[in-house]
Design goal:
single chain, mainly beta, 3-stranded antiparallel sheet
Length: 92
């Protein structure tokens, strides 16, 4: 969540913010998006479709320091466009 040019790690319940914590950006120089893909096979499914599975894509946003030794996780987003808009807001 971005509010007043500050970046917050936040959790929502039914569209309302229930928890908000500011992410300090003083020592941070880079923002990175890491893409994760999780899959699960349904081994208990019927014989008609033995290769049936479920895939979840996730984009995690990280704030890095100059040497990339300290990594602070911001949030996880299902869509890459949301992550890119946050990166473009804080690009220097």
């Amino acid at each position: 969540m971005i509010k007043n040019k500050k970046l917050y790690r936040s959790q929502f319940l039914f569209g309302n913010v229930i928890l908000k914590k500011e992410i300090p950006l003083q020592d941070s120089t880079d923002i990175s998006i890491l893409i994760y893909q999780g899959t699960q096979k349904f081994s208990w499914s019927s014989m008609a479709r033995p290769d049936q599975g479920y895939t979840v894509n996730s984009n995690k946003l990280y704030v890095l320091n100059t040497k990339h030794t300290i990594k602070k996780a911001c949030n996880r987003y299902p869509k890459r466009s949301i992550s890119k808009s946050i990166c473009s807001t804080y690009s220097r």
